[in-house]
Amino acid sequence: MTRTEFWQGNIASAEGALAAGCRFFGGYPITPSTEIAEHMAAKLPKRGGVFIQMEDELASIASVIGASWTGARAMTATSGPGFSLMMENIGYAAMTETPCVIVNVQRGGPSTGQPTMAAQGDMMQCRFGSHGDYAIIALCPASVQEMYDLTAKTFNLADQYRVPVFLMADEVIGHMRERIIVPDAVEHTGRPAFLPGTPPFKPGAGLIPGFPEFGKGYGTHVTGLTHDERGYPCATNPGLHAALVKRLVDKIESATQKLADFDVVNPDAEQIFIAYGAPVRTVQQVIHDHPDRKIGFLRVRTVWPFPAHALALFRCARRFIVPELNLGQIAREIERHAKVPITSVPKLGGELHTPAELFAVWEAGA
Amino acid sequence: MRREVRFSGFGGQGIILSAVILGRAAVMYDHKFAVQTQVYGPEARGGASMSAVIIDDEEILYPKVADPDIYVIMSQEGFEKYGASARPDAVMILDSTLVHSRPGCMFYEIPATAEAKTTLGRDIVANIVMLGALVGYTHVVSEEALKKAILDSVPKGTEALNTKAMELGIALAGGKKQP
């Protein structure tokens, strides 16, 4: 039996994680993500899980990585400066192919910025924030329901691809309360199986190695140094380094179409909005308020890897309009894929675009 | 029909909780759609606080309140910041103990903080008195739904006090003539 609740987005995210079998949360509370930590602190111990408040965000993500190597589904949640502090070990997780989930309830930056206001200013940071080349997966929720559903999904993706997966929420979606239908159960897929006797970092299907969980008798060496298939440091072999880093990127980018999660509205429209996160709600309102106008909409849930192939579904496109709560971070990503002009509609300050603002942009080009 | 309710006061009065209770009443007990949002600063108490609820029979898309139909105002600063620009056909319920100004729209005066203190002995429940008055005047949710949502949301041991506060608010609304 599903049930109806009136939940805050952050609580829905925590509940989605619990439903997905998350059994470790290591974090350091920070507005506007704190309710996730609070809720996990209250609920995890009762489910046989571990909640630990670490001394800072560097240690928080480190604890999550350690927990993940024991086989546990592990996560943290943060925002703003806390996200910046996690960057080094996020790279470590990418390099060591450690499944982990990082929820970022984005607030206004840079620095301490606007702790209680919404932003989407970390979209490039989640993709490129740690040093070196690597790839990650990032999902963006636009409702309390999606805070639940997509958080649950991040755990499956992290396990399947052995990669850090980000739920890139924002203060509006994290803090608002609305109706949610809580399912009985969520899909729970596992990590690629480790075949005893094979080198632990030898890639299997989809360029992804099997996961040799700690405590199961496999003596696996895990290092952030460039390593060979046995997991041993091998940091001066140019070819080996190039192949490893290329594989870390390719295992995600080659799965772009499989990972894609988007909706298409009015595919024969000439002017198309593209949005993710809270601005989705404004675009939906614009379409609702103007049923007589052909307003196209590509509503994106998987932002990284960006589903560039979706742009071609709009065959009559004359331009794409991209409202974001930043200065046009994903608009630039779209620009490099699109064959028609892009209009970036940036908004800073912490408030959403109003429906009238966005309709005016569309109308000006009609 | 979409109805937008804005609550404002100072941090510590339970402005956000009021909106959470109203939204909960609409969703869980009146089986409608509702979205609750808030604006607050990094300070824990004292600053102007605002929260809002949208209630609708259909799914709510844009989640922010721009031009409320209904205001519940519990501080002078809250009035100036979030209530003074109410449109002429809006309805405002104000705590006349704490708000000196009066709006251009229709308004009702409820001395919620004074009544909570003298009648119930606890001014902390002034926000629940205001919720009772809100429902008494506007029927934006049913009384039954409001009561259940209040009981879901208040600390254990305070149920009777909060129920009385709600009933006091409804009575104060019923006892008033329109201005």
3D structure, described in words:
The complex is a heterodimer of chains A (366) and B (179). Chain A has 3 domains: 3-182, Thiamin diphosphate (ThDP)-binding fold, Pyr/PP domains (Rossmann fold); 205-254, no CATH class; 263-364, Rossmann fold. Chain A has 13 helices and 15 strands. Chain A has helices at 9-19, 34-43, 57-69, 80-85, 87-96, 123-128, 144-161, 171-175, 238-253, 256-259, 279-289, 329-335, 355-364, and strands at residues 3-8, 22-27, 50-53, 73-78, 100-108, 114-118, 137-139, 164-170, 177-182, 262-265, 271-275, 296-300, 302-304, 319-324, 342-346. In chain A, strands 2, 3, 4, 5, 6, 7, 8 and 13 form an 8-stranded mixed β-sheet that branches. Chain A starts with a strand and ends with a helix. The model of chain A has no long low-confidence stretch (mean pLDDT 97). Chain B has one domain (3-174): Pyruvate-ferredoxin Oxidoreductase, domain 3 (3-Layer(aba) Sandwich), CATH 3.40.920.10. Chain B has 6 helices and 6 strands. The interface between A and B is medium-sized, with 22 and 21 residues. Strand 9 (177-182) of chain A pairs antiparallel with strand 2 of chain B.
Mean pLDDT of chain A, to the nearest integer, reads 97
Which fold name fills CATH's third level, the topology of chain B? Answer: Pyruvate-ferredoxin Oxidoreductase, domain 3
Distance between the ends of chain B: 26 Å
Number of domains of chain B: 1
CATH superfamily of the largest domain in chain A: Thiamin diphosphate (ThDP)-binding fold, Pyr/PP domains
**Alpha plus pi helix count of chain A:** 13
Question: In order across it, which strands form the biggest sheet of chain B?
Answer: 2-3-1-4-5-6
- Low-pLDDT sequence parts of chain A: none
Gyration radius over CA of chain A:
20 Å
Shape of chain A: globular
Helix/strand-derived class of chain B?
alpha/beta
Number of domains of chain A: 3
Shape of chain B: globular
Determine and state the CATH class of chain B: Alpha Beta
- Unreliable stretches of chain B (pLDDT < 50, length at least 5) are none
Number of extended strands of chain B: 6
